[in-house]
């Protein structure tokens, strides 16, 4: 399974956690058990999820700072889930370049977000990459 499909699975997990306001590692394991597919990169999902859960405040601070005029609560839950994955990758995954994180997030936004989501996400993540020195 490609990393793109695995990111899509991670985005759905992050969305589910946001809807339920349940940011716990147990939710990650339950999600994986319920949605595991052959060749799914389970380690990527576990790693990015645990890093996000442990650093959620820092991730959300970057998103809030870079979303210029939008608070976390104003961002659609889908867009927020996509942003959280990409910023978590930029902060915690040294093996993934910021450009790849941004590109993959924009592609997810084209599929799952609203009409303006791709450009919004691209702008926020471009600012986040600069903020993080990536």
Gist of the model:
Helices cover 74% and strands 0% of the residues. It has 134 residues and is mainly alpha-helical. It has a single domain (3-131), classed as Orthogonal Bundle (N-utilizing Substance Protein B Homolog, Chain A), CATH 1.10.940.10.
How is this structure best described in words?
By secondary structure, the chain is mostly helical. The chain has one domain: NusB-like (N-utilizing Substance Protein B Homolog, Chain A). The protein has helices spanning 3-20, 25-35, 42-54, 56-66, 77-92, 98-112, 117-131. Helix 4 packs across helix 5. It is globular.
Task: Return the structural class.
Answer: mainly alpha
Q: What distance lies between the first and last C-alpha atoms, to the nearest angstrom?
A: 27 Å
Tally the beta strands: 0
Q: How many H/I helices?
A: 7
- The third-level CATH topology is N-utilizing Substance Protein B Homolog, Chain A
Tell me the strand percentage band: under 5%
Share in helix:
over 70%
**Which CATH architecture would you pick?**
Orthogonal Bundle
Largest sheet: none
CATH-level-4 superfamily name = NusB-like
- What is the CATH level 1 assignment? Mainly Alpha
From the alpha-carbon coordinates, what is the Rg to the nearest angstrom? 14 Å
Provide the number of structural domains: 1
- The coarse overall form would be globular
Keywords summarizing the entry:
globular, 74% helix, N-utilizing Substance Protein B Homolog, Chain A, transcription, 0% strand, 134 residues, RNA binding, mainly alpha
């Amino acid at each position: 399974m490609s990393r793109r499909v695995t990111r899509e699975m991670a985005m759905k997990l992050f969305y589910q956690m946001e809807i339920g306001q349940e940011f716990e590692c147990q939710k990650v394991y339950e999600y994986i058990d319920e949605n595991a597919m052959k060749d799914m990169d389970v380690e990527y999902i576990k790693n990015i999820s645990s890093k996000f859960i442990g650093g959620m405040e820092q991730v959300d601070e970057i998103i809030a700072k870079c979303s210029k005029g939008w608070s976390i609560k104003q961002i659609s839950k889908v867009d927020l889930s996509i942003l959280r994955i990409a910023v978590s990758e930029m902060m915690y995954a040294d093996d993934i370049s910021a450009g790849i994180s941004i590109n993959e997030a924009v592609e997810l936004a084209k599929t799952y977000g609203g009409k303006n989501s791709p450009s919004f996400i691209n702008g926020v993540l471009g600012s986040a990459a600069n903020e993080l020195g990536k």
